[in-house]
Every structure is written in C-alpha cells, then in structure tokens.
Give the backbone structure.
Amino acid sequence: MSTTTDNTSSSATFAERDFVDLAGAIDRVPAPQRELFLTKLVILLAAGAPAGLLADRLERAGRHLSG
C-alpha cells in the first residue's frame, strides 16, 4: 500500500514500510526527546527538498492541526 504525500502534481509516495520505519524510530526515542527528534528529522528532509516545497508543506501541516 502506498499513500500519495502530495495532492498536487508530485508523484512521490510514502509506502507502508515507511510508516512502519517512522513509527519504529519514534518509538525508540525517549518521550521527552521526541519533539527534538522530529524537528531534526524535518530539517534534514527539508534540506534536500526542491525550492518552494517546504513552504507548501508548512502551510498544509498548519491546516491539518486545526481540524
């Protein structure tokens, strides 16, 4: 099973194995350090993203917080 990570023109997918790997990595991090871990992960992923993609993802993530 693959889930599209973008509702626009991106063809990137997030495979079920990726969900499993991410969940496992989060579980291995002590609870008090999870926020820092996720922040560092986002920075590393954003560093290799095409121009403009981060701004789009920030806006989308903010929309999903409220509802």
